[in-house]
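Box 3.1 A note on notation
Throughout this textbook, protein chains are presented in two layers. The first layer is the amino acid sequence; the second is a token string describing backbone geometry. Keep the layers aligned when reading.
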Amino acid sequence: LVVVDALVDAFCDDASAAASFGALLDQLAAAALPALAPPAEERPDLCAALLRTCARCATLCASALARAAAAPQLVLHASRLLETSRHIDVLSQAVDFLRALGRRARYGRDPAESAALAHLLGGEAGDALLGAAIRGLPDSLPLASVPLLADVLAPLLHLPQWRAPPPPGAAETGPAARRWAVRALGALPSRKGEPSDGTKRALLAALCEAPDAYGGGGLDLELIERLREELISFARVCRGIEAAAFNIAAYDWVPAG
């Protein structure tokens, strides 16, 4: 994988190399993912190395991921780790990978690349990513890694695929991200009364009602920091580290279903 990383560094500006890097990612995924799939024994060294390579490709040659057949599997694998892994290095690489993909989906080198990556991060992948992030917040995600979720989610929350309306006849209402969040929040177990309905409402508002931090052709660091604070607060409240502090009447919780 070190050799692959060096090749990406050397040839990332060569447009003709994208297909070759995409095929290489497919081969790496075919070899590594079966060894990392549950219930196989966790391999944090292998997992971190694979995600580091994916993050480098997403940062320097995102079109390779847009062409890789294994890209959906890699995104789902990285997303699952937000809920299941307690290894800081693994989580850091997963965050770097997903954050780089989200940024490229919003501001890619060309519209076709951005559109392909946005499509990759929508639908099942978007549901899995947001759901894993929400399920990891109350307990399993190390508290030191919680602030990093803001950098992953900020570019994604206003993607067209995350704002898409429900299909005709669907029981759920609202944009896709809201439907995914309501479903995940509604399924969270309660420990000593948390997360309460009010705590869930506060997080739902932070995720689905905040302005676009990537809107207007720039990056609003204040909005990202606000999201970061909400994620940290939700995690701390669920873990009994701090008491909830919000105006319950300001939120409108709609249970899944």
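The radius of gyration is 18 Å. The CA atoms of residues 203 and 230 lie 7 Å apart.
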